[in-house]
Amino acid sequence: MNRVPALIITAALTFTIGGAVSPATAYAATCVTGADGDFDGDGLRDRAVAAPNGADGGHVVVTYTSTGTTTVIDQQTAGVPGAGADGDLFGFALATYDNNGDGCDELVIGGPGEDVGGKPDAGSVWIVPGARGGLNTAATTAYTQDSAGFPGAVEPSDLFGYALAAGLTGAQPYLLIGSPGEKLDDGYAEGQVYYLRAAAIVTLHQDKPGVADDSEPGDWFGETVAATPTHVAVGVSGENAGAGAVALFTHALTADSLTPLSTVGQDSATVSGAGEAGDAFGGGLSALPYRPTGVTATGTLLAVSATGEDLGAAVDAGLVHTLFVDSRGVVTQLAEYKQSAPDVEGTPETDDLFGGVVRLADTSGGAYATPASALLTVGSAGSEGSHPGTGAVQVFRLAGAPGDGDVWIAPGHAGLPAEGWNDHTVAGSTPEWLYLPGWSDAGAVVFGLKWSELLAGGSVRAHVWPAGDDFNVTGVL
């Protein structure tokens, strides 16, 4: 690994492409709909913490909100296919959606380091069905590129499951699986993405009709994926000698893919800056349904990072763009976030890698975010002044200029202990919480900061949840 995201189905596609993926049988019919990430069907969002780097091949710790009960899921768990081994990266990517329409969300787990049929790092994805009372691990399904209906075949270093995104478009659940190591025609890491919806399994890559550029070695198409009910975005951070790009699609199915909209980068007329080798635009990606002020149709808010962007003499200082994709597919830039912007806390420094992780959150919890409810969280891996090696996290409001009330989070700040914060990683953000990785005497933990406290400017209390015994938390749903 060299590169280290509830409605009943009422409609069906009228054609089948490449075979079908059968959803898991509903384990219970008494789930309460309405909360994303609700695995046990009680109407409350639950918590899944990924720790993929352990000697057991990685694991996911699930905490059920209403009871506080915690369970660990790995490949040693009864009913979960496979046998965990060092380097599997079980949990490297997470997603959640209600695939079978029973009101309980499924947990989707990516393991891009999984060896399949003797082929190292081919990758696998597991879907654990939600159920009243808790995730039904006994009914877990595993997918690889050799699974029925999947185009292509298992190959070494495909990294299937490196990135995940899932949700609903209309009343239909969809799942995106990134395979950035895929070799198509010319060499390693051209990359592709699998899209699953109803009976369709199609692939997205740069050799498809209407998609800009061509698949080339080192493009890393599918290193990041993000989606909303209206649009799909795929990061291609290796494009053009690492300048990077993001490919945009609608959910409308073609014969063997999705309908392409456009490909954007820093050379696009609507995006500030200039595409330069090593910028890695698209290496960080997040999306929300969004309506800017004065707009009546919901589109997509994208946060896209370029961690390799140089700012003056600061090499790889990094920056983040927010873009809006309207209902017609037109892309406009909303803002550019960097530590050299007026009133933004911090100073650009070499190897800051600002934007190494980006997360969007909608504090309203509604069907779409607005400038008043949308938040952008950015992780910086680098020197960051007095916190070398641990970096920092910054939170920005979408309303106003980037420097209007940005919040700086580092060890000893915003309710976090001076010791015990793991690193720069932004583990996750939801409508209620910002999650950051850390540790205690009991092992790995996740610190939770309530948005309501963090944004109020007063005292903040860091809540703590267990994350297993390995100090390698990479994500929280």
UniProtKB/TrEMBL annotation:
| Cited PROSITE patterns | FG_GAP
UniProt cross-references to InterPro entries, sorted A to Z:
FG-GAP, Int_alpha_beta-p, Integrin_alpha_N
Q: Which PANTHER family match?
A: GAMMA TUBULIN COMPLEX COMPONENT C-TERMINAL DOMAIN-CONTAINING PROTEIN, UNNAMED PRODUCT
Please identify the protein, giving its name as recorded. VCBS repeat-containing protein
Residue stretches in coiled coil: none
Q: State the species of origin.
A: Phytomonospora endophytica
Pfam families from the UniProt entry: FG-GAP
Spell out the SUPFAM superfamilies in the cross-references.
Integrin alpha N-terminal domain
Q: Which UniProt keywords apply?
A: Glycoprotein, Repeat, Signal
In the UniProt record, the signal sequence range is 1-28
